[in-house]
Automatic annotation (TrEMBL):
It comes from the Bacteria. This is GNAT family N-acetyltransferase. GO terms for molecular function: acyltransferase activity, transferring groups other than amino-acyl groups. Transmembrane segments: none annotated. Residues 118-258 form the N-acetyltransferase domain. Pfam families: Acetyltransf_1. Gene3D superfamilies: 3.40.630.30.
């Protein structure tokens, strides 16, 4: 592994137990494939080299061509610090920036009380369909939300050696109004917070903070003291994470092939 974020790589090793069904290593990159096929861009090339000279470009293009035969695709996942050294590669392949991932990290020291307004209940015993429908509304336009949530719901009930998966929901009058998932790797000493959403009608009530606190406690109870979330830089989640003590540790750029 050359000059690549240990945090980012740790997250992807944890998610290999989840919606990633394989990670194949090549010179200069790992090819990561997903069990979710409805969006062709769930597959990607995680660049592990700090320059294109260390990249097996032929292997990458071969994988891409085979994917496209099945109407699938993959994007390039490149550490932001390395973009300058990949300028010629990006230009020669006419890559188009598709998005930016900010890795927000926090080190934990002690558990804390989970505070909720009157009438709201934190639980891991919830109605999955209610939760998934609420998240679909939160992430309007993401067609894979239910399929993604179902993958991690199934993992909550399985024994995966060294990895633990949980989802917390907050209910009000028996209805799910907020939820957040955590995927934890003991070997990686890392807990990844993901798929967090709060019903628009119940925001600004401290529910987001409560979901962070609940997962912080869960991580510590499972012997992990470092947590991470992936957000869009300077977006609402980025700002919210900053208020919860998270700091940006790394940034990756997603590029689409023409």
């Amino acid at each position: 592994m050359e000059e690549v974020s240990s945090i980012a790589y740790g997250v992807h090793q944890i998610l290999r137990q989840g919606h990633y069904d394989g990670i194949r290593s090549f010179d200069g990159f790992d090819y990561v494939s997903s069990v979710i096929k409805s969006d062709p861009f769930h597959n990607y090339f995680f660049v592990t080299s700090n320059s294109p000279q260390g990249l097996d470009e032929d292997a990458m293009i071969k994988i891409l061509r085979n994917l496209r035969k099945d109407n699938l695709d993959a994007f390039l996942y490149l550490k932001a610090d390395h973009v300058e050294s990949f300028t010629d590669f990006i230009c020669s392949h006419k890559l188009v920036e598709r998005g930016v991932d900010s890795y927000m990290v926090k080190n934990l020291t002690s558990t804390k009380e989970v505070a909720l307004p009157n009438g709201f209940v934190l639980t891991t015993d919830y109605d999955f369909d209610q939760m998934a429908n609420m998240l679909v509304e939160c992430f309007d336009g993401w067609q894979d939300e239910k399929e993604y949530a179902a993958v991690y719901e199934k993992l909550r009930h399985q024994n995966v050696d060294g990895f633990v998966f949980e989802t917390y929901a907050i209910t009000f009058d028996g209805k799910v109004v907020a939820s957040g998932a955590v995927a934890l790797g003991r070997k990686q000493n890392l807990a990844y917070y993901h798929n967090t959403g709060v019903d628009a009608r119940y925001r600004r009530k401290g529910l987001y903070t409560a979901l962070i606190s609940a997962r912080d406690n869960f991580a510590l109870q499972n012997g992990v003291n470092k947590v991470v979330a992936i957000t869009e830089p300077n977006g609402d989640a980025f700002k919210a994470m900053g208020k919860e003590g998270f700091k940006e540790e790394d940034r990756f750029i997603l590029y689409a092939f023409p």
